[in-house]
Amino acid sequence: MLDxxxxxxxxxxxxxxxxxxxxxxxxHLNPGDFVTIIGGNGAGKSTTLNMIAGVYPIDQGTITxxxxxxxxxxxxxxxxxxxxxxxDPMRGTAAGMEIQENMAMANRRGKHRGLSWGITRKExxxxxxxxxxxxxxxxxxxxxxxxxxSGGQRQALTLLMATLRKPSLLLLDEHTAALDPKTAKxxxxxxxxxxxxxxxxxxxxxxxxxxxxxxxxRLIMMNEGKVIYDVRGEEKKNLKVADLLKKFEEVSxxxxxxxxxxxx
Length: 264
Description:
Elements: E1 2-11, E2 19-29, E3 34-39, H1 45-53, E4 60-65, E5 68-69, H2 75-78, E6 82-85, H3 99-107, H4 121-134, H5 151-162, E7 169-173, H6 181-198, E8 202-205, H7 209-214, E9 218-223, E10 226-232, H8 233-237, H9 241-252, H10 259-263
Parallel strand pairs: 3-8, 3-9, 6-7, 7-8
Antiparallel strand pairs: 1-2, 1-4, 4-5, 9-10
Helix pairs in contact: 3-5, 5-6
């Protein structure tokens, strides 16, 4: 489903601010894989997601998604293949528009747009059914402006919109990091439910080691722009946070210095 081969990326090349963000990333995902990504600050986690999404061009290597080489495709030409949820709950929705209007935009992603009525009766019924899955009561508030929702409600809605038209790949970039623990757990539960129901191939960056261990079927650790550890199946289920810290020290030769991740 996803094949990343020897991908390199350096920002501000040739200047005093030069930063090697990716240093030969290799990663292969099978259809249905739910992969959590952990690593210290500047390890290349979010940059990897940005490279897949086409936010920045890669310097070297190839990215193949669903059998298609997308290495040189601009961001807008990849958008129909991807679903993405960011850390900031405000980024994935239009605050001044109604809940149903936001969902209608998401539902038309990659489709031809004509001059017919904005939202059909059939769509309204479909949106209501989809919203009810969230368990947040939003199905009874479809004409409410999204700006009136809480951060957790907006993030759950963004997740639903990102998966409304089943993407080839779902990218979750620390999508619960800005939420309080109780709300974060609710959004993670919804995430697992939607991913399992639609059998979505998913990459989830997280700073929470416990979440990384317990969620998904596979975990990868990044450091200095490359994958240094890849574990799956029963071995992953049996991991403890202490095991991950020890593995990081073994592979990288240094301590895991990320206060936010250790505190979580």
